[in-house]
Each structure stands twice: as structure tokens, then as C-alpha cells.
Model the fold of this input.
Amino acid sequence: MMRHNWFPNPMLGDPKPTRSLDCSVNQWGSPDSPGIILRHSSDLIGGYAEWVVSGLPAGVRCAFVASCGAAEATDTFRGPLMEVQDSHSAILGHSESWADNKRIRIVFTVPSDGVVRLIFRGRIGKDTAFYQIICTEAGSDESFFTGSTMPLNIN
Done:
């Protein structure tokens, strides 16, 4: 099965979100662990970045997956770290509101118009990183969680 990633690869250019609030968004990570960082611009509220992604196959179960960076026990996030909404802002799925170096996975069904909003939220007053971001068909990513495959290391 060939996996398709609908999230734009941050290493192939400037990872400009469709919309961002209270932060700037930059490339982050290494070539084997590419990602984004929400650079906070307010000490009172966490960053917010969203990408509007279109052309997804309507009715298909998809997974929005990313690893979040480190957080301290006292950190507060703007809300759920990751969220998926449809084009009318209805929530299709969301993660927990606090995590530390965790792989997050949200499963959702693509709406009939094939458009979703992929949202990241940052820590209040601190930069927040997300790595290895994918939005793909649910099932094509599940071997990562069952351990039935190993990542390839290409030298």
C-alpha cells in the first residue's frame, strides 16, 4: 500500500500555515525528523496554527499524526495540542490538552467536500515543536503503533 501524506512537508519550503495567531511558524527538526515550531509572540496565550487541506477523498477514515516536543508539568497549552475541523469549523477530532514528547494520533472521517483544517496549539508563553507530521489514510499508519514494521535507515 502506498501512503499519501496530505500535510505539506515542512522541509520542502517555508511551512506557512493558512492562518496563525500569537506565533510565527518555522521549520524545525532534522532531515530524519522534520517538523515545525510555533514561536510564541505572547506570554499570555499559546500559539495557534492551522492548515486548510483540500482534495482529501470524501468518506475515507484518515489519521492526523505528529510527535509533540517537550513540555513541563506546569505548562499550559492554548487548548488541545492538535485538532481536526471541517470547513465549517465542526470538530472532527482532537487530542489531549497537555502532552510531553508524545506521538499524537487523531482519527477522523473526511467530510463530503474533502476539506479539513489541521490545527496545532502551543504552550502559553513558550515555543512548541511538532515533528514527523502526517495526514494519511487510517490504516496505512497503524503499523507504527503495532510494531509490525521498522523504519528504514537510508545512509
Notes: The chain has one domain: 10-139. The longest strand covers residues 128-137. The radius of gyration is 15 Å.
